[in-house]
Specification:
Oligomer: single chain
CATH class: Mainly Beta
CATH architecture: Sandwich
Shape: globular
Largest sheet: 4 strands, antiparallel
Structural class: alpha+beta
Number of helices: 2
Helix content: 10-25%
Strand content: 35-45%
Length: about 150
């Protein structure tokens, strides 16, 4: 091979490797935790209840998986959801059921959902929140704003 051609091939391979690694790094799944509290409710709720949501999101497949624990609610939990689109301090409608419809949630709750393109945008724009509702607080007793890590 000629020297110019060799350098061209090496440069092309290096560029391809850089683009491939950047694409893979950009689309790697991310894991993070979301604290749940009554203070995050809108309006705030005085409760000893707390919780944590451990989430993993894969932007390539738009698969969101979760394991959510909670304790200390003022009354039995009635349902749990992802809501959006809403920034912290705002309320919005249900996007994804975490608990099974009609069944009281128990801790821990695990599951997954493939997000729509619109839901994926809400998630990455910090416009999803998790809400656990209870008998004493039907609008929600503990809440946490979902804020994925930014690369």
């Amino acid at each position: 091979m000629r020297p110019t051609r060799t350098w061209s091939v090496l440069l092309a391979l290096a560029l391809f490797g850089w683009i491939t690694s950047a694409t893979l790094a950009h689309s790697a799944p991310v894991s993070f935790s979301v604290p749940l509290s009554g203070a995050a409710q809108v309006p705030p709720v005085s409760t000893p209840g707390t919780g944590t949501a451990d989430l993993t999101y894969d932007p390539t497949t738009r698969l969101l998986t979760w394991s959510i624990t909670f304790s200390g609610l003022s009354s039995p939990a009635t349902m749990a959801h992802f809501h959006g689109p809403a920034a912290a301090g705002k309320n919005a409608g249900v996007q994804i059921w975490i608990s099974k419809r009609g069944a009281a949630p128990t801790s821990p709750m695990t599951g997954s959902a493939t997000l729509t393109p619109e839901q994926a945008t809400m998630l990455m724009d910090d416009e999803f929140y998790i809400n656990i509702h209870s008998q004493d607080h039907p609008a929600g007793e503990i809440r946490g704003q979902v804020v994925p890590p930014k690369s």
